[in-house]
Amino acid sequence: MDDTPQEITSLVGREVYSNNGVFVGEVEDLRLNVDGETVTGLALGNLNTELFTDAARGGQGVIVPYRWVRAVGDVILINDVVERVRQPDEEEDELIA
Fold this sequence. Notes:
This is Photosystem reaction center subunit H. Residues 8-81 form the PRC-barrel domain. The protein is mainly beta and 97 residues long. It has a domain at 31-84. 11% of the residues lie in helices and 35% in strands. It contains two helices and six strands. A six-stranded mixed beta sheet has the order 4-3-2-1-6-5, with no helix packed on it. The longest helix is centred in the last third of the chain and has 6 residues, at 81-86. The model has no long low-confidence stretch (mean pLDDT 78).
């Protein structure tokens, strides 16, 4: 990833896609570790209803761990969220509703 410093607010509003090209959602907010001065998660809204049926219908968002982020540009690419979402029992601690 590019190590050029950016304003963290510039991430808000960007679309998030899996590295397979599947739309996941849109960044609405960030989870921060203030002491460590790092972003620890992306709070997504406007979710792909095929991936997040319950959360999308309930008007809720999801938080994906920032360690899933592979690249940040005009859009944000994350690891294979499709498989992680479809296997919630195995990845329960990874995806926080």
